[in-house]
Design brief:
Blueprint: E1 4-12, E2 21-29, E3 35-42, E4 47-56, E5 59-64, E6 69-71, E7 76-79, E8 85-89, E9 100-107, E10 111-120
Parallel strand pairs: 1-10
Antiparallel strand pairs: 1-2, 2-7, 2-8, 3-6, 3-9, 4-5, 4-8, 9-10
Amino acid sequence: VGDLVIGHPWARQSPMGADVAAGFMTITNTGKDEDRLVKATASVTPTVQLHEMKMEGDVMKMAEIPGGIVIPPGATVELKPKSLHIMFMDLKAPIKEGEVIAGTLTFEKAGTTNVEYEVMAPNAGMN
């Protein structure tokens, strides 16, 4: 979409009984101007937030990112476990390995694009 290249959107299978899951991907900005991921949607829930994980003292905390995720020019931003990610909240049903979740990503400059998240095993990306 625009100067942005979206690489391998994926999500992890929901933990047993959980009503949340997280989405991950890479976003590469091939342009000369900064862009910003400002919104995401998913077919499995009306509540999707852009999150980050960070250490506060010796405790890892997750929080919504006000203003979205900056994608610097000429850089690749990786949304990955224990870092930046897309949070699917209040899931209608747990998501399972092998499913595909339809959604959208909206960027401040590049606009909105459709994505499909491949749902992977519960421990995917933990290497």
